[in-house]
Prior knowledge:
The complex is a heterodimer. Chain A has helices at residues 3-22, 47-63, 76-88, 103-108, 128-134, 156-161, 175-187, 203-211, 228-243, 260-263, 276-282, 323-335, 337-343, 353-362, 365-379, 395-407, 413-431; strands at 37-44, 67-74, 95-98, 143-144, 150-155, 269-273, 289-293, 311-314. Chain A is α/β, with parallel strands linked by helices. Chain B is mainly α. Chain B starts with a helix and ends in a 6-residue tail after the last helix. Chain A binds chain B through residues 1-6, 9-10, 13, 77, 80-81, 84-85, 87-88, 105-106, 108-109, 111, 249-257, 390, 393-394, 397, 400-401, 404-405, 408, 410, 427, 430-431, and chain B through 45, 47-50, 129, 133-134, 150-151, 153-156, 177, 180-181, 184, 211-212, 214-215, 218, 222, 238-241, 243-246, 257, 260-264, 296-299.
Amino acid sequence: MDRRGFLKVSLGTGLAAAAVAGCSGSGGGPSGGGGDVTLRYAWWGNNIRQQNYTKALKQFSTANPSITIEPEFADYTAFQERMTTQIAARDVPDIFWIASPQVMTYHKSKLYRKLDDIPTLKWDDYSKEDLETFKLDGQLNTLPFGIFTPVIRYNETVATADGVTIPAEGPGWTWDALAELLVAYSKNNPGKRKGTPYAPDHDLTFEAWLRQRGEQLWTQDGQVGFTVDGLGSWLDWWEKLRKAGGALSLSEQEGMGPDWAQVGKKVLVNFGNSNHIIDDAKMFPKEKFRLRAAPIAAGAPAGHKYLYFPRMAIYQRIDDGNLEAAGKVLDYNVNNAEMLKTVRLTMGAPTNPKVAEQAAAFASPDEKEMLAVVAKERAAERKPRYEAPPGSSTWRTTMGRICEEIALGKTAVPAGAKKLVDEIGAGIKRAA
Amino acid sequence: MTSRSRFYLNRQGRAAHVFLIPWQLGFLLITAVPLLASLYLAFTNYDILNPPEWTGLENFQRMIHDDQFWASVRVTLIYVLVSVPLQLAFALLLALILDRGLSGLAFYRSAFYLPSLLGSSVAIAILWREIFGDDGLINKGLALIGIHGESWLQNPSTALATLIVLNVWTFGSPMVIFLAGLRQIPDELYEAARVDGAGIVKQFRHVTVPLLTPIIFFNLILQTIGAFQTFTQAHIISGGTGGPANSTLFYTLYIYQQGFVAFDMGYASALAWVLMAAIAVVTALHFLVSKYWVFYGDS
Lengths: 432, 299
């Protein structure tokens, strides 16, 4: 081949690549529809949640013909990426759900419009205490629309068949008792199941562990709320459980953050959020799942219980003319049980106590299980909890990586705990 | 040249420029401006939500003490150094076999090219999990002979190797280019070599390889640049974490983590420019060294 031939091949390949690249674009536009006000509504989830919410938003538009809603849906990770680019382009949806790591980051960036002056959004059903817990830095600018609590979910069908009794909540329901049960079960059960997936990176149960030891996840002034020792004790509990065979290995569960559809058939219990039972139980329709509140450490201080709220907000720069319509949409989301009949309770127990009561009437058995455990936690004494500060958005990814290193024997627990606290602290400092 | 023909050519030139305007606009808005913007952002602390804040060389200094950065450099270099030669060798081998005039050549060529089309897709990455996972095909095969294998994707010693295998498997694109190059080698040269008593190996060594060096060089450049930019497979297989224990933390995956997970766009931009500089240096070195081993027919 001569130089000219070489150039021909190069040019030809380049042009072909350019042609292929040129074909890869896609067009798009608003979903359209009639109405005087058009609002963009952004949320995340799986395809079932997408279908349910799309249907519910259509029902809303049918009942309110002057309001058209353009749905913007994505999977949780993609949702955050899209929000980031939308924020950079100042093209934020009028109403959007807020991923937990971003609550205070968006607040600091003044993305939320205040909600307590919108006539179409009613707050009458909420107690003063509720409203206080909803606020960020004393401002009612986000709307909690569900409640999650940390739970242990167990497979009652398998437990019954294998002759295992999960202790009732009370003095015997401790972390040590749970670990003993999981190890003993893993050693001797006919299905060769393990006690639990390896899940030290599960945030809600980790937070429960910390609060039971007088620590917290985040402080009010936006710093790491736990010590190296506090984190180390949690990681140590998991490491002992894993080494004793009470938890799946990373290989068995294909890495951190395992897929429940894959590991559900390999374990007796799972550490999770109370709302997860609704979608997860459906993956094993022949089996019955039950919930227990997280175990309680001896000497846990009063007020250690807590509720986690997923939140939504109205964009600060929303057109004034669209504000009342947006308030109406938010009101429909939290103060109207009709919407829940369509979307179900995958986003947790309703924050509106009256709606929670109404929901119990049409809830499925799994949803009732979730409502019961949340109601109990809601009734308990609770000290305040604070949202993740700016700069901490990757803390769970970092925690997963360090837990993985510990399980693989590449890092010891104390060193891993220190590394995690240092890395989170550095991120917060950079964002300050 | 007459004034009339000059006018004609000028008119053609103007028309060419008019037709190029859409491309030029696209290049300017989609490539050049973001490129320059990212160069500026590389020297700032920018979280997207707030205006960028000038920090000078801080982002570049941060890399020196960043363990994750060095882990990603290590993984990417191993991947480039191992997977590119393997892939090219495999592609050349298949091209040589196909060049021998097999019946059904068109079918085989298409079949071998298929993985190249699918190689960066999510579906293939998922398929890889089904093959190399704890309950995957390989471990099921091993179980038949009494060996209990663990997940190849969750073992830090083997996870990267599975991605290298995936890259080698997508040999179709360089193979087609090799095949085109082989077709351009004149048959007379082989005949002459045979007359001189050269066997297949000698013909390959003294005829095929020298005349194919421009194509080898071309594929080497393309595949090296592509390997430096590997992202999708690692993202899907590790769930975006680069695990286990950073063993699949490719450089581009780390850029993505910083930019779109941590929203640290300033640092992500700095990382991207370091990658671009590294690719430019490696490519320049390839060109410098090429004069010692690449043989053009007219030189």
